[in-house]
Design goal:
The protein is mainly alpha-helical and 235 residues long. The protein is built from 8 helices and no strands.
Length: 235
Protein backbone atom coordinates (compact mmCIF):
# COMPACT_ATOMS: atom_id res chain seq x y z
CA UNK A 1 0.00 0.00 0.00
CA UNK A 2 1.21 3.47 -0.83
CA UNK A 3 2.57 5.86 1.78
CA UNK A 4 0.08 8.27 3.37
CA UNK A 5 2.09 11.23 2.08
CA UNK A 6 1.78 9.95 -1.48
CA UNK A 7 -1.94 9.39 -0.93
CA UNK A 8 -2.32 13.00 0.15
CA UNK A 9 -0.55 14.21 -2.98
CA UNK A 10 -2.80 12.09 -5.20
CA UNK A 11 -5.93 13.30 -3.39
CA UNK A 12 -4.81 16.90 -3.82
CA UNK A 13 -4.07 16.30 -7.51
CA UNK A 14 -7.53 14.88 -8.18
CA UNK A 15 -9.26 17.85 -6.61
CA UNK A 16 -6.93 20.22 -8.44
CA UNK A 17 -8.17 18.75 -11.73
CA UNK A 18 -11.74 19.03 -10.43
CA UNK A 19 -11.30 22.69 -9.55
CA UNK A 20 -9.72 23.43 -12.91
CA UNK A 21 -12.64 21.86 -14.76
CA UNK A 22 -15.18 23.68 -12.60
CA UNK A 23 -13.36 26.94 -13.37
CA UNK A 24 -13.59 26.32 -17.12
CA UNK A 25 -17.38 25.99 -16.78
CA UNK A 26 -17.75 28.94 -14.42
CA UNK A 27 -15.63 31.31 -16.52
CA UNK A 28 -16.54 29.83 -19.94
CA UNK A 29 -13.02 28.85 -20.94
CA UNK A 30 -14.25 27.09 -24.07
CA UNK A 31 -10.82 26.32 -25.53
CA UNK A 32 -9.75 23.99 -22.74
CA UNK A 33 -13.14 22.82 -21.44
CA UNK A 34 -13.03 19.50 -23.32
CA UNK A 35 -9.50 18.80 -22.08
CA UNK A 36 -10.20 19.58 -18.43
CA UNK A 37 -13.39 17.51 -18.50
CA UNK A 38 -11.50 14.42 -19.66
CA UNK A 39 -8.59 15.05 -17.30
CA UNK A 40 -10.92 15.36 -14.29
CA UNK A 41 -12.36 11.85 -14.70
CA UNK A 42 -8.99 10.56 -15.88
CA UNK A 43 -7.48 11.68 -12.59
CA UNK A 44 -10.04 9.59 -10.66
CA UNK A 45 -9.08 6.52 -12.69
CA UNK A 46 -5.38 7.24 -12.13
CA UNK A 47 -6.05 7.65 -8.39
CA UNK A 48 -7.82 4.28 -8.27
CA UNK A 49 -4.97 2.57 -10.12
CA UNK A 50 -2.47 4.12 -7.71
CA UNK A 51 -4.39 3.07 -4.60
CA UNK A 52 -4.87 -0.44 -6.01
CA UNK A 53 -1.13 -0.48 -6.78
CA UNK A 54 -1.86 -1.34 -10.39
CA UNK A 55 -3.49 -4.68 -9.54
CA UNK A 56 -6.64 -4.80 -11.67
CA UNK A 57 -8.19 -8.09 -10.64
CA UNK A 58 -11.40 -9.33 -9.10
CA UNK A 59 -13.89 -6.67 -8.12
CA UNK A 60 -11.35 -3.88 -8.70
CA UNK A 61 -11.74 -4.66 -12.41
CA UNK A 62 -15.46 -3.84 -12.14
CA UNK A 63 -14.63 -0.57 -10.40
CA UNK A 64 -12.11 0.51 -13.03
CA UNK A 65 -14.51 -0.54 -15.81
CA UNK A 66 -17.31 1.57 -14.31
CA UNK A 67 -14.98 4.56 -14.20
CA UNK A 68 -13.87 4.01 -17.80
CA UNK A 69 -17.50 4.00 -18.94
CA UNK A 70 -17.90 7.28 -17.08
CA UNK A 71 -14.95 8.69 -19.00
CA UNK A 72 -16.48 7.41 -22.25
CA UNK A 73 -19.79 9.04 -21.34
CA UNK A 74 -17.98 12.33 -20.74
CA UNK A 75 -16.44 12.05 -24.20
CA UNK A 76 -19.78 11.43 -25.94
CA UNK A 77 -21.38 14.41 -24.17
CA UNK A 78 -18.65 16.62 -25.60
CA UNK A 79 -19.87 15.79 -29.11
CA UNK A 80 -22.98 16.93 -30.95
CA UNK A 81 -26.45 16.27 -29.55
CA UNK A 82 -26.89 13.17 -31.71
CA UNK A 83 -24.34 11.43 -29.49
CA UNK A 84 -26.32 12.14 -26.30
CA UNK A 85 -27.94 8.70 -26.19
CA UNK A 86 -24.50 7.12 -26.66
CA UNK A 87 -23.34 9.06 -23.62
CA UNK A 88 -26.43 7.95 -21.75
CA UNK A 89 -25.65 4.34 -22.66
CA UNK A 90 -22.05 4.65 -21.47
CA UNK A 91 -23.11 6.09 -18.13
CA UNK A 92 -25.81 3.41 -17.84
CA UNK A 93 -23.16 0.71 -18.30
CA UNK A 94 -21.11 2.33 -15.55
CA UNK A 95 -24.10 2.46 -13.20
CA UNK A 96 -24.85 -1.20 -13.84
CA UNK A 97 -21.26 -2.11 -12.97
CA UNK A 98 -21.49 -0.09 -9.76
CA UNK A 99 -24.81 -1.78 -9.03
CA UNK A 100 -23.22 -5.19 -9.64
CA UNK A 101 -20.48 -4.35 -7.12
CA UNK A 102 -23.05 -3.40 -4.49
CA UNK A 103 -25.14 -6.51 -5.13
CA UNK A 104 -22.10 -8.79 -4.93
CA UNK A 105 -21.14 -7.28 -1.59
CA UNK A 106 -24.74 -7.57 -0.36
CA UNK A 107 -24.82 -11.27 -1.26
CA UNK A 108 -21.52 -11.85 0.53
CA UNK A 109 -22.83 -10.12 3.66
CA UNK A 110 -26.08 -12.09 3.60
CA UNK A 111 -24.20 -15.36 3.20
CA UNK A 112 -22.00 -14.40 6.11
CA UNK A 113 -25.07 -14.10 8.34
CA UNK A 114 -24.32 -10.51 9.24
CA UNK A 115 -27.95 -9.38 8.94
CA UNK A 116 -30.01 -8.33 11.97
CA UNK A 117 -33.63 -7.33 12.53
CA UNK A 118 -32.44 -3.74 12.70
CA UNK A 119 -30.76 -4.14 9.32
CA UNK A 120 -33.94 -5.60 7.83
CA UNK A 121 -35.98 -2.66 9.12
CA UNK A 122 -33.43 -0.21 7.74
CA UNK A 123 -33.47 -2.01 4.38
CA UNK A 124 -37.27 -1.77 4.24
CA UNK A 125 -37.07 1.97 4.91
CA UNK A 126 -34.59 2.35 2.04
CA UNK A 127 -36.92 0.45 -0.32
CA UNK A 128 -39.82 2.68 0.71
CA UNK A 129 -37.66 5.72 0.02
CA UNK A 130 -36.69 4.27 -3.35
CA UNK A 131 -40.36 3.82 -4.25
CA UNK A 132 -41.10 7.42 -3.26
CA UNK A 133 -38.21 8.63 -5.38
CA UNK A 134 -39.45 6.74 -8.44
CA UNK A 135 -42.91 8.23 -7.94
CA UNK A 136 -41.35 11.70 -7.77
CA UNK A 137 -39.30 10.97 -10.88
CA UNK A 138 -42.33 9.97 -12.93
CA UNK A 139 -44.16 13.08 -11.79
CA UNK A 140 -41.19 15.35 -12.53
CA UNK A 141 -40.53 13.98 -16.01
CA UNK A 142 -44.13 13.29 -17.00
CA UNK A 143 -43.94 15.82 -19.91
CA UNK A 144 -41.50 13.44 -21.65
CA UNK A 145 -43.93 10.51 -21.63
CA UNK A 146 -45.30 11.51 -25.04
CA UNK A 147 -41.92 11.07 -26.70
CA UNK A 148 -41.10 7.36 -26.74
CA UNK A 149 -37.71 7.95 -28.36
CA UNK A 150 -36.22 9.50 -25.22
CA UNK A 151 -38.75 8.54 -22.51
CA UNK A 152 -37.99 4.82 -22.48
CA UNK A 153 -34.19 5.17 -22.24
CA UNK A 154 -34.57 7.74 -19.47
CA UNK A 155 -36.87 5.39 -17.52
CA UNK A 156 -34.34 2.55 -17.77
CA UNK A 157 -31.61 4.94 -16.73
CA UNK A 158 -33.58 6.26 -13.76
CA UNK A 159 -34.38 2.77 -12.47
CA UNK A 160 -30.73 1.68 -12.75
CA UNK A 161 -29.31 4.85 -11.20
CA UNK A 162 -31.76 4.97 -8.31
CA UNK A 163 -31.37 1.21 -7.83
CA UNK A 164 -27.64 1.75 -7.40
CA UNK A 165 -28.28 4.39 -4.74
CA UNK A 166 -30.77 2.11 -2.94
CA UNK A 167 -28.31 -0.81 -3.02
CA UNK A 168 -25.56 1.42 -1.59
CA UNK A 169 -27.79 2.52 1.28
CA UNK A 170 -28.94 -1.04 2.02
CA UNK A 171 -25.33 -2.27 2.03
CA UNK A 172 -24.28 0.31 4.62
CA UNK A 173 -27.35 -0.53 6.73
CA UNK A 174 -26.49 -4.25 6.65
CA UNK A 175 -22.83 -3.58 7.40
CA UNK A 176 -23.95 -1.38 10.32
CA UNK A 177 -20.76 0.56 9.72
CA UNK A 178 -21.42 4.29 9.47
CA UNK A 179 -17.81 5.38 9.32
CA UNK A 180 -16.78 8.07 6.86
CA UNK A 181 -15.24 5.60 4.40
CA UNK A 182 -18.36 3.47 4.03
CA UNK A 183 -20.80 6.38 4.12
CA UNK A 184 -19.05 7.76 1.04
CA UNK A 185 -20.63 4.91 -0.96
CA UNK A 186 -24.28 6.01 -0.55
CA UNK A 187 -23.19 9.65 -0.60
CA UNK A 188 -21.51 9.08 -3.95
CA UNK A 189 -24.53 7.20 -5.33
CA UNK A 190 -26.94 9.92 -4.19
CA UNK A 191 -24.70 12.65 -5.64
CA UNK A 192 -24.69 10.73 -8.93
CA UNK A 193 -28.49 10.68 -8.85
CA UNK A 194 -28.66 14.43 -8.18
CA UNK A 195 -26.15 15.15 -10.95
CA UNK A 196 -28.01 13.16 -13.59
CA UNK A 197 -31.42 14.48 -12.51
CA UNK A 198 -30.11 18.03 -12.87
CA UNK A 199 -28.69 17.23 -16.30
CA UNK A 200 -31.88 15.60 -17.57
CA UNK A 201 -34.24 18.18 -16.06
CA UNK A 202 -32.25 21.13 -17.39
CA UNK A 203 -31.93 19.54 -20.82
CA UNK A 204 -35.46 18.25 -21.36
CA UNK A 205 -37.82 20.03 -18.95
CA UNK A 206 -36.64 23.48 -17.92
CA UNK A 207 -33.21 25.17 -17.86
CA UNK A 208 -31.73 25.40 -14.38
CA UNK A 209 -29.46 28.28 -13.44
CA UNK A 210 -25.80 27.20 -13.23
CA UNK A 211 -26.88 23.65 -14.12
CA UNK A 212 -23.67 22.83 -15.99
CA UNK A 213 -21.51 23.77 -13.04
CA UNK A 214 -23.73 21.99 -10.51
CA UNK A 215 -23.78 18.86 -12.67
CA UNK A 216 -19.99 18.83 -12.91
CA UNK A 217 -19.47 19.37 -9.17
CA UNK A 218 -21.92 16.67 -8.06
CA UNK A 219 -20.69 14.27 -10.76
CA UNK A 220 -17.02 14.58 -9.87
CA UNK A 221 -17.66 14.32 -6.14
CA UNK A 222 -19.84 11.28 -6.81
CA UNK A 223 -17.16 9.47 -8.81
CA UNK A 224 -14.45 10.18 -6.24
CA UNK A 225 -16.70 9.25 -3.30
CA UNK A 226 -17.53 5.92 -4.94
CA UNK A 227 -13.87 5.26 -5.72
CA UNK A 228 -12.83 6.02 -2.14
CA UNK A 229 -15.67 4.03 -0.61
CA UNK A 230 -15.19 1.00 -2.86
CA UNK A 231 -11.45 0.97 -2.24
CA UNK A 232 -12.02 0.64 1.50
CA UNK A 233 -14.86 -1.83 1.01
CA UNK A 234 -12.92 -4.09 -1.36
CA UNK A 235 -9.63 -3.65 0.45
Amino acid sequence: MAESGANLIWNFSVFLFFLLDWATVLFNWHRIRALTKMLAMGSVIAWTLFIAEGQINGLVFFLISAQLFGLLGDFFLLLQNKWFLWGLGAFLAGHLLYLALFLIQLILELRGGGITSRSIFGGILVLVGWSLFLGYFYRLFKPLSDGKHIWRPIQVYAWSLSGMAAAALILVVILSDYSKDYLLLPIGAVLFTISDLLLAYSRFIKPVQNAKLLVRITYHLAQFSLAWGFFHLLG
